[in-house]
Amino acid sequence: MLQTADAGQTEDGALVRRAQAGDAEAFGLLVERYMRRAYFAALALVSRREDALDLSQEAFARAFLARRSIDPERPFYAWLYQILRRLCFNFLRDRRTRARTFEAAGTWLADEAAERFRSDPADALARREAQRRVAAAMEALPAREREVLALKEFESLTYREIAPLVGIPVGTVMSRLYSARRRLADALEEP
Amino acid sequence: MKIQDGAALERARTLMMQALDGEISAGERRELDDLITGSPELVAEWRRLRRVKEVTTDMTLQNPPAEIWDGYWTSVYRRTERGLAWVLISIGVTIPAAYWVWHVIRSFLADTNMPLFLKLPIAALAIGVLLLVISVVREKLFTARRDPYVKEVIR
Predict the structure, then answer these.
(1) Geometric angle at alpha carbon A42, from A46 and B55, rounded to 5°
(2) What is the rounded distance in angstroms from the CA atom of residue B126 to the CA atom of residue A63?
(3) Tens of pLDDT along B101-143?
(4) Which of A24, A53, A158, A180 could pair with A145 as two cysteines, CB 3.0-4.6 Å apart?
(5) Among residues 72-101 of chain B, which lie with CB inside 8 Å of chain A?
(6) Which residues on A lie below 8 Å from B76 (Cβ)?
(7) Residues 6 or more apart in contact with residue A63 via CB below 8 angstroms
């Protein structure tokens, strides 16, 4: 697994070097490699597909323009993620945008759980209601807590992987997760 | 029994997170069990947090239409072209506009025919607009510097 990650990073480094030398197609390969991950990271933060697409593409566009400053020895996605998260946070700070995302609580989630529990409609309904509540509560979370929760729940990253991406110690990752989950638990118990 | 020691409470919460996310060792698991045992508050909190984990584990992000990926890189590339175009347009507009403003100010100051009661309000208007622009720019820069999210970005 570690070897695969190392190999991936080596390939990324080679593509970054080619892009820095003027090969736009090499950067295109990097985009194809990470577009899904960037899109879903943005979606988990901003909740709307159109906005996630726009923000993730903008992050790649900025990365392309700043490609000469990328260190080929360091992970490309971690560098790109810094641009992406800043774009998403700026986007969320816009109050009008935030009001608009509230209208669409939970529409960014797939309805797979309902499919899984189709044999027991009552259970499926209860789970869907719980998910709807949690999704709405996630949209209301402070952006920094939501980010860490999304990286944990949707990308299944370990604490040690989240910490350098977000630029915080492992202990802070856990405390943000605790705070986020407590808010979600409150939302689940609301009458 | 109530856990009144803040450090123990903090430790219990950290261990709960590790247990929920499968990042706990056998020794830490025993430590968590010891902390929870005999504390109805922690038992209740543990139950609530496990319920949240159950719900979030079932949650999956929605896939976009597959065709989005086909034109993704092309869209990114077009954005970079448009960005470059905007930079060139901005340069093309800003330099002649600045020259024109400088020319107008020079003519305004050199105009001896304009009465003072007109000159003063026009000068006040121009200074007011300038102060407004400076204030907005300063606020933008100040916000960027104090942005709590930007601070934690490590490049």
Answers:
(1) 70
(2) 39
(3) 888 888 888 888 888 888 888 889 989 998 999 998 888 777 6
(4) A180
(5) 72-73, 75-77, 79-80, 83
(6) 31, 57, 60-61, 64
(7) A70, A79, A80, A83
Report the complex ipTM.
0.80
Give CA–CA dist A34/A31, Å, rounded: 5
Unique residue bearing structure tokens 């915080």: A168
Tens digits of residue pLDDT in B59-106: 888 888 888 999 999 999 999 988 888 889 999 999 999 999 888 888
* DSSP characters over chain B: -----HHHHHHHHHHHHHHHTT---HHHHHHHHHHHTT-HHHHHHHHHHHHHHHHHHH--BPPPPTHHHHTHHHHHHHHHHHHHHHHHHHHHHHHHHHHHHHHHHHHHHH-SSS-HHHHHHHHHHHHHHHHHHHHHHHHHHHHHHH-HHHHT---
Tokens of A164: 């350098």
Q: What's the whole-model pTM score? A: 0.77
**Residue with structure tokens 């593509």?**
A15
Sequence-distant (6+) residues with CB within 8 A of A155 are A37, A40, A41
CB within 8 Å of chain B, chain A residues 96-125: 107-110, 112-113, 116
Candidate from A31, A43, A82 with C-beta closest to B155: A82
